[in-house]
Amino acid sequence: MQVPAVFMDLPLEDQAQELRVYFKSLGAEISEEKSPKGIEDDLHKIIGVCDACFKEGKETEIETILNDIVSIMVLIPIERAENLILAFCEKLTKAPGQKLGLVCLKALWLLFQSLDEKSPMRYHVYYHLVHIARNVDQVKAVYGGVDQLKAQFAPCPPSNEQMQKLLRLLHEVLLSCKQSEQAAAVMVALLGTYTAESASAPREDAQRCILAALADPNTFLLDPLLALKPVRFLEGELIHDLLLVFVQEKLPAYLKFYKNHKEFVEHSLGLNHEQNIKKMRLLTFMQLAETHPEMSFDTIQAELQIEENEVESFIIDVLKTKLVRARMDQAGRKVLVSSTMHRTFGRAQWTQLRDLLAAWKTNLSAVQEGMKTVAAAQIELATKTK
Fold first, then answer.
1. Which residues have C-beta within 8 Å of that of residue 119, sequence separation ≥ 6?
2. Which stretch of DSSP H or E encloses residue 314?
3. Quick one: which of 15, 122, 210, 306 is 20 to 30 A from 159 by CA?
4. Taking 80 as the threshold, does the pLDDT of residue 300 lie above it?
5. Once rounded to an integer, what is the mean pLDDT over residues 328-357?
6. 199 and 233 in contact (C-beta within 8 Å)?
7. Has residue 45 got a pLDDT over 50?
8. Contact 209, 168 (CB under 8 A)
9. With contact defined as beta carbons under 8 Å apart, do 185 and 213 qualify?
10. Mean pLDDT value of segment 96-120
């Protein structure tokens, strides 16, 4: 069995024939002769059996063969290569095992990079790339964030429906790879693709977005979800009511909601009640920290409904999250808060920020004037001593 050499200046038909001979030697059901219908039919037949090399040969040989196919495919006018590209993508997404999956990921990435940036086929190749990346746990290799994704397709933006399909896949893949923060950003981007007219349609997407945010132990800023049009259409439903609790209420409100809707929380949504309590305690502490720069251990114990011997460990856990900056005074049995992340950021918070910046500006002006006075005094003193 001889692997075809790297193609130099051979005509496409001769390159295809070498691949035919190679796959025939592997026992694939393909003729060694060129097709009288032309290069597209040759490539169609080759792609149809290209998975035969998955059973034979080393990874380096397989990569060479797949790259040879790509090198031929990208030389065919795109309007005649669309079905070939789709068929090739489908074959590669079915590659078994980690090693073969990585080889196929490289081959598809080469195809993606080789296509003109204005080609609509780049979307389809990328969609299959994400599938393979999930199988081999390499999503970071093909996805760098929502902004990068949009820039990547800026020369030829996919249709709204295509982008929604891709974002759903990315959300699913990122969750499976334990990248909850990235997954949340993707879901927000997905919901942002719906207009006011279509916002009532994606109920499942909106519910999935809320559920993912509530279940993620590292997501605490939930207020932006309320502004998303598809989420607004859920107002009045239990899942939206629960979101409101996590956005603006304290622990007692959650416990009341759970008492009245235990079946909904644990079975319909599949949320972990103990995990919810832990998250609500953190959110409650953040809200208290907004208006209480100093909190006694007794206040924390009462508000968070924890035992006395749990207060210090809870405060340590809060400080680890960096949601709140504070100092624990164990002797005085109190916490001194220097700053906290706001659970919501509305008009009141913007006003507070404006006032803070205005105060800083005033203080800096005072310092500047003070420095001018000191400098003038030093100059005057130096003049007198001469």
1. 78, 156
2. helix 311-321
3. 210
4. yes
5. 75
6. yes
7. yes
8. no
9. no
10. 94
Q: How many alpha carbons lie under 13 Å from residue 384 in its C-beta half-sphere? A: 6
Answer for the pair 233, 258: CB distance below 8 angstroms, yes or no: no
- Structure token pair of residue 237: 């439903």
* Cβ-proximal residues to 356 (8 Å cutoff; 6+ apart), any chain: none
Q: Residues 372, 374, 377, 381: what is their CA dihedral angle, to the nearest 10 degrees?
A: -130
Task: Report residue 228: phi and psi, to 5°.
Answer: -75, 130
Other beta carbons less than 10 A from residue 32's beta carbon: 12
The answer to whether the predicted template modeling score (pTM) of the entire model surpasses 0.70 is: yes
- Count the helices and strands in the chain (H runs, E runs): 19, 3
More confident residue, 378 or 148: 148
How far is Cα 188 from Cα 196, in angstroms, rounded to an integer? 15
Calpha distance 324→289 (Å, rounded): 8
Among candidates 69, 153, 155, which has minimal Cα distance to 110? 69
DSSP assignment, residue 264? I
Identify whether the C-beta of residue 171 lies closer than 8 Å to the C-beta of residue 185: no
What 8-state DSSP symbol labels residue 343?
S
* Contact assessment for residue 4 and residue 22, using Cβ atoms and an 8 Å cutoff: yes
- Overall size of the chain counted in residues: 386
257-296 residue pLDDT tens: 999 999 999 999 999 999 999 999 999 999 999 889 999 9
DSSP 56: S
The kind and range of the H/E element at 242 are helix 238-248
Query: How many angstroms separate the CA atoms of 66 and 330, rounded?
Result: 65
